[in-house]
Design goal:
With 118 residues, this protein is of the alpha+beta class. It contains 4 helices and 2 strands. It has a two-stranded antiparallel sheet. The protein is extended and about 50 Å long.
Length: 118
């Protein structure tokens, strides 16, 4: 059985990024046989709100590398980060031109500041 799993893993890792993501999603969903419909509805509302912010131009996406640098900088300033300094990363469903990474944007919660670089 271990050999079968190893071979299956090799094949899965050889798939394109999008196919691996879809496979991972299906596998994760198969582990949870209960669905909290209220939580699903709230997540769908949040996703729609974030997509609308991106589509309207209210928020501009930035790269994950940039978001990670901002998060690291905030964490370096102090182990305790106030709620006004928390970073809210949100995935854009689009990708940056020339990049295989999803676009990210960050908003410093409670401050109204938003990062606008891609």
């Amino acid at each position: 059985m271990a050999q079968e799993i190893s071979e299956l893993l090799k094949k899965a890792l050889a798939l394109p990024v999008e196919a691996r993501a879809a496979l991972a999603s299906c596998l994760l969903e198969s582990l949870d046989d209960t669905v909290d419909q209220a939580a699903e509805d709230e997540w769908n509302k949040e996703i729609s709100r974030r997509i609308e912010e991106l589509d309207s131009g209210k928020v501009k996406p930035i790269s994950w590398a940039k978001a990670r640098r901002q998060i690291s900088a905030i964490l370096r300033r102090g182990a305790r980060v106030s709620s006004a300094q928390r970073v809210d990363p949100a995935i854009s469903l689009r990708q940056h031109p020339g990049s295989r990474q999803p676009a990210f944007r960050t908003r410093i919660l409670g401050t109204g500041q938003q990062s606008e670089r891609k």
